[in-house]
Amino acid sequence: MRAARFDRYGPAEVIRIEERAVPEVGDSDVLVRVDASAVGVTDAVSRSGTPWFARLFFGLRRPKYPLLGTEFAGTVERVGPGVTRFAPGDRVFGAAEVGAGATAEYVVVGEHAAVAHAPDGLDAAHAVATVDGFLTALPFLRDAGEVRPRQSVLVNGASGTVGSAAVQLAKHLGASVTAVTSGPNAELVRSLGADRVIDYTRQDFTTERDAYDVIFDAVGKRSFGACRRALTAHGIYLTTVPTGAIMLQTPWTRLFRGGRRAAIAFTGLRDSRTKGVELEQLAALVESGAFVPVVDRILPLDELVAAHRRVEGGHKVGSVVIAITDAAGPADASAADAATADDSREANGAPA
Ligand SMILES: NC(=O)c1ccc[n+]([C@@H]2O[C@H](COP(=O)([O-])OP(=O)(O)OC[C@H]3O[C@@H](n4cnc5c(N)ncnc54)[C@H](OP(=O)(O)O)[C@@H]3O)[C@@H](O)[C@H]2O)c1
Questions:
Q1: Which residues make beta-bridge pairs with 109?
Q2: Whether residue 240 has its Cβ less than 6 Å from ligand 1
Q3: Does residue 185's CB lie within 6 angstroms of at least one atom of ligand 1?
Q4: pLDDT at 257
Q5: What is the CA(164)–ligand 1 centre distance, in A?
Q6: pTM confidence score
């Protein structure tokens, strides 16, 4: 089978596509023929080895996990003798363990890992685009932010993979949502449910006062210090990006519960069985129309280097998807695609 790998940290060009054996299937494993995979910021970080502290996890001197890709959508090819949850032919989506190598023609996952039946009515390319954003935004908003109906939630970086999922989830949790992005993405985030949009190139939301119960900085661009006064008296600031400051502020502000707080979470490290259950919830949300995929572009496996470059640019709109097979789906199939910025419309084959 074809699989993406890299053997040393470096720019996107260190990636190569190699032929390797189809992985073995254990007693409780599911072998998935992958139709589509996604490239996210974590893939780019694991490949480049930057920022440096990422190497504490991905390998200090050289990569511990040379196979690329975690999210996948495809069809069950074979199951181990102990598997009851899936059968050959089932359409599935999920997130493999780091290092399993989901940007490949086949991937193996445990039956009770982060895998679920894919939502009806969505092709693999659009199904895979929902996984990372949902599995990241959900624990931030539901668990760390404890978002409740009628609360005021601001999402910074609302047009990215995590941010676009957060806007939809915060709405689903009953909050009033302010989305921060740049002008060209305003219509997209409004279509995802944002009640109010702030163009960060024109207006600085941190100058507001006592405005938000939750500020979720999905792209880690603004510090707790900058956002503190825009929070309500008991508000919480959440960020996806680790810094020295947030690692101290998280325990420190928890000690003084009652005031404004700050928190970071590491959602990828959660129990994969829990993620599997959450993926079932995601499939139901997608089928009900409450959650839509946002696809930046769909590229073939041979253009994986270009996909990594796009991700590193920091301006993708939703998820960058790799079509492994022709069954991944048409390049511009969702309503959300149509509302994304000009360059992604162009990449999806529509006029800019
Ligand atoms: N802690 C965890 O467990 C965890 C888990 C998953 C991901 N992450 C992290 O979460 C972060 C976000 O990931 P992602 O995939 O959502 O990122 P992404 O898709 O690359 O984010 C891109 C979006 O960010 C917007 N953006 C760029 N600069 C901005 C700014 N200054 N202010 C507001 N918006 C801005 C861009 O909009 P414009 O083009 O309009 O600027 C673009 O649409 C990454 O750093 C990733 O490593 C953390």
A1: 30
A2: yes
A3: yes
A4: 65
A5: 10
A6: 0.94
d(CA 352, CA 341): 8
- 298-303 CB contacts, 8 Å cutoff, 24+ apart: 298/36, 298/125, 298/322, 298/323, 298/328, 298/329, 298/331, 298/347, 298/348, 299/323, 299/347, 301/2, 301/4, 301/17, 301/103, 302/17
How many Å lie between the centroid of ligand 1 and the Cα of residue 31? 31
Full set of structural domains in the chain with CATH: 2-131+272-347 (3.90.180.10), 133-268 (3.40.50.720)
Q: Is the CB of 157 under 6 A from ligand 1?
A: yes
Residues 163 and 147: their CA atoms lie apart, in Å, by: 15
181 CB contacts (<8 Å, ≥6 apart)? 157, 158, 159, 163, 188, 189, 197, 198, 199, 200
Q: What average pLDDT does the structure give for the chain?
A: 93
Determine contact, residues 135/278, Cβ cutoff 8 Å. Answer: yes
Ligand 1 atom nearest to 242, measured from its CA: 1
Q: Ligand 1 within 6 A of 163 CB?
A: yes
Is any ligand 1 atom within 6 A of the Cβ of residue 144?
Answer: no
Q: What is the pLDDT of residue 223?
A: 98
Per-residue model confidence (pLDDT) at position 19: 98
Instruction: Give me the pLDDT at residue 258, please.
Output: 72
Examine the pLDDT at 43 and tell me if it is beyond 60: yes
CB under 8 Å, gap of 24 or more: what pairs does 299-303 form? 299/323, 299/347, 301/2, 301/4, 301/17, 301/103, 302/17
Q: Provide the strand spans (E) within 218-314.
A: 231-239, 261-264, 295-300
Distance 315 CA to ligand 1 centre (A): 8
Find out whether the beta carbon of 253 lies less than 6 Å from any atom of ligand 1.
no
Residue 190 CA to ligand 1 centre (angstroms): 18
Omega cis (within 30) before 51: yes
- Please tell me the distance between residue 161's alpha carbon and the centre of ligand 1 in angstroms: 7
Does residue 219 have its Cβ closer than 6 Å to ligand 1?
Answer: yes
Ligand 1, atom 8, lies closest to the CA of: 240
